[in-house]
UniProtKB/TrEMBL annotation:
The keyword DNA-binding does not apply. Residues 1-13 have a biased composition (Pro residues). It comes from the Eukaryota. This is Gnk2-homologous domain-containing protein. It is found in: Secreted. The keyword Secreted applies. Residues 1-64, 69-163 form the Gnk2-homologous domain. Keywords: Repeat, Secreted, Signal.
Amino acid sequence: MPPSRGVSTPPPRARALTKADTTTAECRDCMNRTTTDALQLRPTRKEAIVWDDQCILRYSDSNFIGSINTNRLYLSNVNNASDRDSFNLELGGLMRNLTSRAVSDPLLLYASGKTVYDNFVTIYGLLQCTRDLDDAECRNCLESLIADIPSCCNGHVMSELKF
């Protein structure tokens, strides 16, 4: 039913984010996939978040631009490091280093890197914030995710935190 005369509905908001190392073609394909998924899986929803390996699509009828999303998705496999505490310590160090690098580039708010753990296992990391956050908000958000690593991903050798 259309709105009554004189009553306006808020404009929908949307945010699309692809990983900074994604090509234009990959980004376009990912946005097409997530848009199709959102319309098929949530045709009547006024808000949704669709996560893909290369991108995230979020839309809502409420204004979320410039705010930090607290909905988190934790993905991990069943393989564990032999020494979880040592692994978590090394991973935390990598993530803190990447956080500093990401917030030092306000145009991208992105950093990726790796570290070697236990002389032969390489740990890879990638962090990225949306550009509607300033560097302080980005840092606070990433630090809260890093703090979650021991509880969500404790020693899992392959994990993802998305929100």
